[in-house]
Amino acid sequence: MRMRLVWWGFLGWLAGSAGYGILLRADEPRKLPNPTRFESQIAAFEREDRKEAPPARAIVVTGSSSIRLWQQQTPGVVDDLAPLTVIPRGFGGSTMHDLLYYADRVILGYRPRAVVIYEGDNDTAMGISPEEVRDTFVQLVRKLHGQNDRMRIYFLAIKPSPKRVDVWPKAKKANRLIRDFCEKDRRLFFIDVASPMLDESGKPKSELFLSDRLHMNRKGYELWKKVIRPVLLKHERDYE
Prior knowledge:
Order of helices and strands: HHEHHEHHEHHEHEH
Number of strands: 5
Largest sheet: 5 strands, parallel
CATH superfamily of the largest domain: SGNH hydrolase
Strand order of the largest sheet: 2-1-3-4-5
Strand content: 5-15%
Oligomer: single chain
CATH class of the largest domain: Alpha Beta
Helix content: 40-55%
């Protein structure tokens, strides 16, 4: 028994001296997807920019597939948010970590006056905790404000969807954490696109979604337009 205690004491000392904390953990840290899986999509944006330079001091609208599909529709995000000048840069399947990784190329490279962000949907679906989603958003905010400390940042609430009702409680918590963070900074805005997407029983309205039960149809984007556009016009019209 004494030998076993000495052995565990040695392991504890070894862990502490190596900078891993007091106790050794048997479980390995969760590995995030490699952001470079989006390199071809980001490079495609850059090729577009070389053909036609995007407008300066515009509003970048970026995030996962909900943004990518919005920019592919007719009318799309550019028309829905007019007369504001926006640069759509959604890349489907992305997470908050991916956006942080590519922030220099999909946001800061355009030197925007403001940015609209939709991330967290895929994060919570793949098991990333609400706290980590919030913490990564905080890192992203600090990075963006490192270039322009007056940049306005609009976060679109993680939406509910019929396909992901099982992780909706975690998404709601992530929304709450990010909303609380935004409320402490006048440059940050939390836009609640999620609540209007729920019916009276608190379930996602199925009529807003495509057959995959995850992505929105035009009716869903009309709802988003109704919620998002007034907020942006209020704060961004004078900068056009």
